[in-house]
What does this fold into?
Amino acid sequence: MINLIFMIDLLKKRDKLEKIPCATLLVRIRKAALSDDGRRSLSIKEFEEKDWIKKGLFEPRPSYSQAVYNTQFIQLTEPESGLFVSRKARVDQNVEELIYLIDKNLVKFTLNWKSNT
It folds into this structure.
């Protein structure tokens, strides 16, 4: 069972928590896996990882294509909305090419910095 006092306290403090731009936190709440007699919760410490799914201790996350994620309550700030627009317009680049460009600019920066000190 969810600790309601904890949840209420967390909801009261949510405006004071640090915000991460363009990030959301997905929390999945499900009933705890129980022993055969139903009297105690099972723990991942009791079983090998390969048995967690079978015992109900772990449930793989659904893929986004399954359309099970509800994002209707996400409240974007104006800068976040701008970041999404900017990202959508950006052309994807090859990772190797990006690493090369970053490395090249770091070398230039280091040489300039050394010559100015």
The chain has four helices and no strands.
